[in-house]
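Cell envelope integrity protein CreD: structure tokens wanted.
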Amino acid sequence: MENQLDLVKKTSQYIKRSITLKIISVGILILLLLIPASMVKGLIRERQQRRDTVVREISQKWGDSQTITGPFLTVPFKTYYKDDRGKTRFNLKYLHFLPETLDISGDMTPEVRYRSLFEAVLYNTRLTFNGNFKLPPASQLNVEPKNILWNKACLSLGITDMRGIREKIVLAFNGVEYNANPGLKTTDLAGAGVSTLVQPLSAQASNAFSFDLNLNGSEQIDLIPVGETTTVRMTSPWPSPSFNGAFLPVTREVSKEGFTADWKVLHLNRNFPQFWQGSKYKVTPSAFGLELIMTADIYQKSTRLAKYAVMFLVFTFFAFFFSEIINKRRIHPIQYLLVGMAILIFYTLVLSLSEYIPFNLAYILSAGSVTLLVSGYAWAIISNSKFALTIAGILSILYCYLFIVLQLEDYALILGSVGLLVILALVMYVTRKIDWYEVEAVAREDGK
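Answer:
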């Protein structure tokens, strides 16, 4: 019985002092801490989804992201057929004509609206449209000229969210002004918009048009290049636009005072012609425009932060592990676990604080708090001020390094890779003279 107790005691001492088993246990703890780390990422996604929901609610009352299609002419024509009784009947189909020239110029006035902790970027834009239609010869239409109802021609403008229209739209066509009415003849080119009957319409006339559009929207605006030559000029005091879509501006100027952007798109740049029947072609893939982005997206930055959680756990745990070897003072797995939880609290602390104060300040306060907490705990369990200062230095370097990576988005990958290589090289340099077999042997002897 006494021999068995001695064996149990020796085994317990070996487990307590074995370096190999300690490395394995630390690795298992890191894997276990990945569970709360993934929960932190889930919390960030949840808050981001909540933000997106609030932004949608604000946008629905003001005006959603807008896509403007047109203007374009829609002309009905008759196609005849015989029914089951042999009687001649007809269906109405539609010809769509796009402008020869289309010039759009406008100003965007942005506005940030707040609800609770969240903010949404809204805008009001005043656009001026000018251009003309050049009708093709009747022989190119593949329709009997007598079946075309030119007196029913409609000038149409597609607008995705009609709630954003702020003023009456007066369309000037061939010198005559028309009040636009809600609704389109067909949804072949756009799902919603305004239109009006126009006359006269002929192949000989210039068919010039002009009108102004006062429109509310949120975050993004897109335009469809329906002109044979489409030119667009947009200006705004917003300092951080994101130009996107099928075409980028040919020239742009962006500064802290705002931006100016010019586009020029030819009909050869897109995949639809100047006229066709029905819904044969889709125009939305050719949309281009801009988005008013918020540069301080705290949820995007928090997500990027959480990706480095494993790195912080590994380097902090290994600092404690080397302290065990150097100071010959054993640290219990529970103490490792508490340190790991403190490291993970940093990410939730940054997220919660950044919803009330600027992100950089939230980052500094969170990093400072966690560094003081972990280094103070290290001093308490090891009773070695040098070790506590070393832990504080390691965490300070890691948090500074991560802060720099966040600021340099374009170089984040290369900076992260080089930084990890440098840290690994330093660890290898510091531990180059440690004889791990001897350390293991000493631990085994101590356990006897």
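The domain at 64-295 is CATH 2.60.40 (Immunoglobulin-like). The chain has a mean pLDDT of 84.

Cheers.
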